[in-house]
Amino acid sequence: MLSAHAREPGGALARFDAGDFAALCRFTEAVRAAGCAVAIVHARKAVLGALSPRENREVPPLHYDVVRRVKEAFPTLPVVVNGGLRDPVSVIAALEWCDGVMLGREAYHRPFVLAELHQALWGGAPPTRTAIIERMQRYAARELARGERLAPIVRHMLGLYAGQPGAREYRRALSEGARGPDADAGLLRRAMPVSARSPA
Fold first, then answer.
1. pTM listed for this prediction
2. Among 5, 128, 169, 178, which has the minimal tally of Cβ within 10 Å of its Cβ?
3. In what side-by-side order are the strands of the sheet with 39-42?
4. pLDDT over threshold 90, residue 178
5. Residue 65: count of CB within 10 angstroms of its CB
6. Which letter, b or e, does each residue of 102-132 get, where b requires 16 or more Cβ atoms within 10 Å of its Cβ?
């Protein structure tokens, strides 16, 4: 267990000293020498044994500066930063100094962020949620025809309306409906919030 002092800002948990960075560089050099072509570096230092997996996702501070220093130390190694980046503004800012950005839970819990990123990076109008659902509906129909179940397919769509009116009802309708014995691909459209059912 970590003491309360260790968890405080500036405490042991927040520190990343010269020894830590030297160890990270040695590790990076070793994996590069073994054939690693791209380094994906999480900006949060995991504290194994002292924090639970959930605490490790939330308690240690993010150190984007450390990942940036790794890129500077290994300029020819493509470096991708991971951890805590949730919106196009922060992703584009990171892309000014690194070679790529990895999104994990944010893309899973709020998949529309990928459409927002596409618009921010390449311009043009992002696909609408309605268009995404129509495309996913065609995919689901093909997979169901091959004998797959709907629930594992639609679970990746549960966060499509996150932050939008009707998001909770959409999640519930999709999650519960997909487990039914007669679940079909049309559920994706039927689950849409009422306010979103007109073409957008």
1. 0.77
2. 5
3. 39-42, 79-82, 100-102
4. yes
5. 9
6. ebeebbeebbbbebebeeeeeeeebbebeeb
Interval 186-195: pLDDT, tens: 999 999 998 7
Output phi, psi for 131, to 5 deg.
-65, -40
CB 40 within 8 A of CB 102: yes
User: In this structure, are residues 76 and 47 in contact, taking their beta carbons and an 8 Å threshold?
Assistant: no
Q: What is the number of other CB atoms lying within 10 angstroms of the CB of residue 176?
A: 13
Are 64 and 80 in contact by the 8 Å Cβ rule? The answer is no
Q: What percent of the chain has pLDDT over 90?
A: 70
Q: How is residue 125 annotated by DSSP?
A: P
- Side chain identity at residue 24, one-letter code: L
Instruction: Tell me the backbone φ, ψ of residue 95, rounded to 5 degrees.
Output: -70, -10
